[in-house]
Predict the structure of Sodium:neurotransmitter symporter family protein.
Amino acid sequence: MLYYITIGNMDRSFRIMEKKASSFSGQIGFVLAAAGSAVGVGNLWRFPYLAAKDGGGLFLLVYLVLVLTFGFTLLTSDIAIGRRTKQSAIRAYETMRPKWKFLGILTFLVPVLIMTYYAVIGGWITKYAAVYLTGQSAAAAEDGYFTSFITSPVSPVVFALLFMGVTAFIVYNGVEGGIERVSRYMMPILLVLVVVIAGYALTLRHEDASGQMRTGLEGLRYYLTPHMEGLTVSRFLQILLDAMSQLFFSLSVSMGIMITYGSYVKPDVDLNKAVNQIEIFDTGVALLAGAMIIPAVYVFSGTEGMSAGPSLMFVSLPKVFNAMGKAGMFVGILFFVTAIFATLTSCISVLESITANCMEIFHSGRKKTVLVLAVIYLAASAIIALGYSIFYFEVQLPNGSVGQLLDIMDYVSNSVMMPFIALLSTILIGWVMTPDYVIDEMQRNGETFRRKKLYRVMIRYVAPVMMLVLFLQSTGILA
């Protein structure tokens, strides 16, 4: 019996050491991986849509202010907690305060839910990339194409499983050998593709049926100009909440991902520079996405095309690409390949967060853990993909929208749990642990934490109030 217990304890220690041995090679590897997590599909369609809907340049100004204050605070907290505790979310909060273990459990559940549908969205994007690569771009522009695809009982499942399989394979190969290696290639390529498409969009010209000529430069001006018409206090509050929710989801905060990635950061890395670089990369891609999409939509659809909302990527943009003529197919290929990179790097980070937590909970090795999770999420992805066909049903959500399986998972994780977790974490850090817990980690190697005073004010007073308002608004309590 003693021999068995000893071997068991050795095995447990080995598994924990295996997890802790995982790390990014350095600051560049960490920044690219973290930026890859932050730069997701939301940057490519949700940000441009909100910018067009919420006053163009006015939304951009609000968003930039929030990046430097609100986003900086939550991102700094997650990364610093991860490196200081060397634990993933489910253990990190317990390490900080045993009575707050429940917060780690809640945080762990967010990526668990998100992972059920993220590969499904990745599968949709992969399908469209395949359509453009095989020269069938005209079909993608037809009315009802997207609906017929997602309601098929076979095709969306196949593409979801393919995307999930690739994600699992990368995570299976570890932090440095899988996640960092992929991010080092994908993120620079993604940035180049976004810049190329944005540059091309500015050269577009199109004369509509009434003889009016619209240009990409006019679309860029529409995007950057603050539109103050009809602005009221309630309207500005809505713009503020939209910008805050976009930033909140974009930076991958309050879902355990940045805590997990932070736990892989070596002690000699300057977290101040790393946070700044992640902010710049994520915000830069979002701004470029707007310069890439809004001028193109404006040229061929005018301001009416801006109201497409979530269908912008899969309905409106294919029509825009088709209207470009022969060049449209090439631009479409570049766009959907870019979207695949953005979605894949985010999907990797979600699965890695789950994997790291499960390794700590069950004291299991990476490869075994990933294989088990892969089986679970291959099944989950198939079920969610069939939510538009075999398992279709509609539910009235508390925020007033109507949804089915994918929408329910997205609503619970993004609109309910993430704002609630962020609210609790600001209370824990700001009032229970005090801000010095994070500040000390940011100054670990003698670096100057330039935004230290701002961090103290934000984490204790501003962020909790903002998160409470966002939670109440997202859940429909605050109409």
About this structure: Residues 105 and 369 are 18 Å apart (CA to CA).
